[in-house]
Amino acid sequence: MAVQAEAGSPTAQPWWDGAVIYQLMPRSFSDANGDGIGDLQGLQNRLRYLRWLGVDAIWLTPIYPSPLRDGGYDITDFTDVHPELGDLAGLHRLIEAAHGQGLKVILDLVLNHTSNLHPWFQRARFAAPGSAERNYYVWSDSEERYGTAPVLFRHFEDSNWQWDELAGQFYLHRFLHHQPDLNYDNPAVQEAMLQVVEFWLERGVDGFRLDAIPFLFEREDTRCEGLPETHAFLKRLRSRVQESSRRRGRPEVLLLAEAIQPMDEAMPYLDEGELNAAFNFGLTAHLFAAVAYGQAADLVQFLTELSERDVGRGWALPLRNHDELWLGDGHLVPQEVIHRIRDGLPAARGHWLNWGINRRLAPLLNGDPRPNMALHALLYSLPGMPCIYYGDELGMGDWPGLRDRDANRTPMAWTPERNGGFSSAPDPLLVLPPITAPGYDYRVVNVEVQKSLNGSLLNWHRRMLMSRKLLSALRHGDFRVLPSGHPSMVSYVRQSLEMTVLVAVNLSGTGASTQLNLTPWQGQRVRELLWGCDFPEATEEWFVYLPAYGFGWWLLGDAELSTSSKSAAGVASRSAST
């Protein structure tokens, strides 16, 4: 990975290099007007919390007008705001306020499909076959077309095709039947979506999370995923975005691909001239498999391959998000990795939805904060952009049994007050019920209580994020896996011009000790960054012991810490009680 350049230099890294992204659902985050639904003003009122936490960017799930049959991913107007959330003026105020707090704003943009209530689709239904209006979507006289494409929402749909009585044809929907796929073989569709992107760029957004990006085009005898035509369109999109940014004199805008594919198939989205970043869902699956069985061999192999082929690429690193923990049908990761997750995490049993697990992070880990910390110690020190799902910094629970994926989209818990401080509305008006399950009750698991407890999970996350922000090696440094003699441990080094940081994490529920070969730093000083104490100097057989789900970050080298790094060590060392 290229080392971070000085700010303002010709080779300076873009704003998202090493950034931490906080994903939130505006409807479930904070309600300012008391109608029971989170809104943009409520989010604006909470920006100081996000700055305090230490994140760099906020990713908003869809805010557009929608019938909300799929959480807003079924869109009826790409160039407006859902009236329950606010309006375009309110979004402008939110973006300005976020920028004032040093936060970037990323919008979720659904390129693949619309709602069946979108005016484009309603015109298509009434238009004649072969007409310009009909050709905005993908139609067929038979369900046999594109028969090799798998059904993605297998718990809800039996086919990728839906008969429309009015049109007298089937229309394609790779997702739910009320989400017809746009026809990207139609140049008018491509131009219309590029104009949507231009519309939001004019309003100052800093990036887009591009939903379901592999499915834009279809071809016979393929999975209809990641086709060459899709990559060609994305290059055109990138070019349009870059041109728009230059015209406005703004920094480059982040284009982040949601491509739930194996690493080899996701990497082309990051080729020169295409997108800036993509989610590394393969890494997510390997992290959960490792902590489920306490065995790190497959994860170490995955990280080794990543370091050998791909260190400099822009990977976004999620643990959980608004969807199920997507594992696929053996296409994303090997079947044995899927089995380890399903068998090794008891909370996953009985909560399998589509191709994934519909649980939040804390319940998946049985409410134990130690594996939560171990996984985040990896996430916050690996190359790329760590992603935090709202509430996971608290250890929030979920509500199994709610409709579809609503189980992990419940209101953010702010205070012990009624409705967790999310809204003053009567209970029946709430967008979703707050969590009251034992161990996750909002009266205990909330921001106000955890901010007051030095040893809370929330304060631990804040200290870790502050340390990461101040340690250049963890944000921008090279990445090299170190062989470990213990099957439950992962170890590697991150190195920038200023410093070298050693990371070791024990992913098992029992203590582990091992020897690491630190020959390249033979005889150099070793200082623990989070506790601020010296360890034995580096040797060929450097010994380390880690307790159950324990981890360590160490500075290697004789040079004095920079002022900012000293601050990081000092802040982190005050977290001893955690």
Overview of the molecule:
- With 578 residues, the chain is α/β, with parallel strands linked by helices.
- It is globular and about 80 Å long.
- Among the domains are: 119-172, Oligo-1,6-glucosidase, Domain 2 (Oligo-1,6-glucosidase, domain 2, Alpha-Beta Complex); 478-573, Sandwich (Immunoglobulin-like).
- It has helices at 26-29, 40-45, 47-53, 88-100, 119-126, 187-201, 228-248, 263-266, 281-293, 297-309, 335-344, 361-364, 369-379, 447-451, 457-470, 472-476, 563-573; strands at residues 21-24, 57-60, 104-110, 139-140, 161-164, 169-172, 207-211, 254-257, 277-279, 315-318, 325-326, 352-353, 356-357, 385-389, 478-481, 489-495, 500-506, 512-516, 526-528, 534-535, 542-546, 551-556.
List keywords for this structure.
578 residues, alpha/beta, Immunoglobulin-like, six-stranded antiparallel sheet
The main pleated sheet reads as: 8 strands, parallel, barrel
Q: Report the CATH superfamily of the domain at 478-573.
A: Golgi alpha-mannosidase II
Task: Using the CA coordinates, give the radius of gyration.
Answer: 24 Å
Number of helices: 17
